[in-house]
Amino acid sequence: MTVAAALAIQDLKAGFGAQILDIALPAASDAELDGVVDAFHHHGAILIRDQAMTPDDLMAFIARFGEPEDHTQTRFTLPGYPKIFILSNRVVEGRPIGAHNDGVGWHTDYSYKPEPVMCTMLYCVEAPAEGSDTLLADGCAAWNALPPEKQAQLEGLKLHHSYKHFMATREFGAMVLSEEMARANPDVEHPLIRTHPANGRKALWPSTGTVTEVIGLPGPEGLALIDELVAFMTGDDFVYRHKWKAGDLLMWDNRCTLHTGTLYDDTQYFRTMHRLWVKGDKPY
User: Fold this and answer.
1) pTM, whole model, 2 decimals?
2) pLDDT by 10s per residue, the chain, length 284
């Protein structure tokens, strides 16, 4: 059994996230990679800049965190690498090579699944000179900042998540699910306050897009509560904004964060990312 190496680390934001310095992932030792995994579980997100990663490198790295997850939409997976999804506005020979404007709006990935993905990793192939930032909101810090009476109000509440609703109402590329896709993605219920299985910390865990109802608080009152909590959690005090450069690798823990992408001038710039997921467990 290897022992995790001590790494050079600095906060992404005070109390949240870790930028890991002076490491080249494809050549890193087992001990160094164990240290990277350990940093992820303790900090909620990790950033490693200036990486030169082949698809095989990405697959080897993501596997250290768990079993790679499949993608609901398979049209834009990298040929030969079904676990690597392409985000891009490039068009080659008249066909888009990736999903464009995917992930805009505060959410957590696969919240509509019984076992949402544990983490999301983005590797930057090319980035615009401006725009296309990724924002991460710290659910643990947001929960801890709530007054005790508000925490008591929220404890035990559950949310109804629906992929069908999400796809029918999303701003970019709304669509009606086929019967096959609807059967494969039935509605689910998850707790509003999620406990992290690795460290026991509690986190606010709302979302936008997939949530149709607060169980026990139906209708406009419940949805207004979700809007209130998302607005609170995504305030400046709890958000890290990442400005991309080619070679950046950013990974965040979906069990305790929300994230969103931002728009950019797609008539002037190109953006290409490789996205990978790791299977998660049932929220509690």
Assistant:
1) 0.93
2) 455 678 999 999 999 999 999 999 999 999 999 999 999 999 999 999 999 999 999 999 999 999 999 998 889 999 999 999 999 999 999 999 999 998 889 999 999 999 999 999 999 999 999 999 999 999 999 999 999 999 999 999 999 999 988 888 876 667 888 888 889 889 999 999 999 998 899 999 998 889 999 998 888 999 999 999 999 999 999 999 999 999 999 999 999 999 999 999 999 999 999 999 999 999 99
In angstroms, the CA 203 to CA 141 distance is: 8
Instruction: Output b/e per residue, 70-89; b: 16+ Cβ within 10 A.
Output: ebeeeebbbeebebbbbbbb
Architecture of domain 8-278: 4-Layer Sandwich (3.60)
Measured CA to CA, the distance from residue 161 to residue 209 in angstroms comes to 9
